[in-house]
Every structure is written in C-alpha cells, then in structure tokens.
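job 3f2a | input accepted
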Amino acid sequence: EEGKVLSRTGFPNMRISSNLTLIGNENKRVAFGYFGDLNPQSSVRRTYVALYEGIAEGKPKQIAKQEVPYIPMNIASNGELIISSGFRERSEELASGVDAFDISSLEKRWQRRFSEPLVAPVSVSAENIYFTLSFPTTAETPSNGLFYVLTASTGKTDREVAVEGVLNGFASGMPMPFGEDALMLSDNQKPIIYKIRD
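job 3f2a | predicted structure (198 res):
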C-alpha cells in the first residue's frame, strides 16, 4: 500500500524476454520467458518459458522450464493454461508460434506454428486466445494482417479475420476481449472494436 519494495530477486546469466505473469488462484507462482545458454550447434541462444515460486519472498525456485523455438515475448494465463507466444527471425528462417502449458507443471498441452510473424501481445479469455499475424512490407504502406481466434482448450482455429489497412502489416496493441464475441485492437494506429461472428 505504501509502494515499498518488499523483496528483490536476481536472475544471473538470464535475460528475461517477456512480461511476468502471476499463475493460479493464490498468485504464488510466476511464469516468464527468457534467453538461456548458447546452442552448441549455432550462435543462437536457447529460449525458454519458466515457472517459478518464491519470487515475492526473494527466494526464487524454478519449478519447471520448457524450451521454445521462438523468442517468448508474451506470457499470459486464463487460470487453466499458461500461454507463451512470439517469433524469431534470422537470415531466411522464421520461428513463430503459440504454446499452451499446464499451470502447475508446464507440461505442454498443445502448440501452433506459423509462417508469418506473430504480433505480441496475445490476449486470453476463458475460452479463446486472440492475436494477429503480420505481413510486413518494405515501405510504410497499408497492407494486410490476419486476426486469429483459437480455442483455448485445444489450440484449434476458431475464426480468422483479415485486418485491412494495417501500417506495415502490424496491428499494434493488445487485442482486448469484449466477452467472447467482440474485441478491440489497433488498426492502422486507430482503436477499432471488432464484432466476431460465427
């Protein structure tokens, strides 16, 4: 209430790449993405999603970790799943995807991989997962993005909607759910409410 720092926690040799997300009803666990060790087969650092407890007391203990092929830029939770998402582009390779993990063990429930960059952050409701894929251009001209709705429990595509007039293919800002049938996101730097219909 006074805004005082209760504890500080250091993570040596680790570069955190995402937000920190409280996990579960008691909020005693935290999940985040980070860069780990250098991959011996290449000059690219491994990237992980980690689940910790004890951070609030300054005594962090890693419960589990899972390696992912992309840079985990956004971590979210709907109380049942931990959702990791992001992309990594190097030379002509692109790793882009969403992974869903169990909130207590980080056991993988499902994964999705895409051939275009996944725009972070991803928004999660009880039933659905919302995000956009970008189609970047070399000039600042309006191009198209693709808005996705996945079923949270299975990772299967529920709906996909073209987003027109997005600057350089990117719809910036978090898709904000309005219940389960509408959302708000930034389309060409203007807030737009989209009605999602079956």
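job 3f2a | The chain has no helices and 16 strands.
job 3f2a | closed
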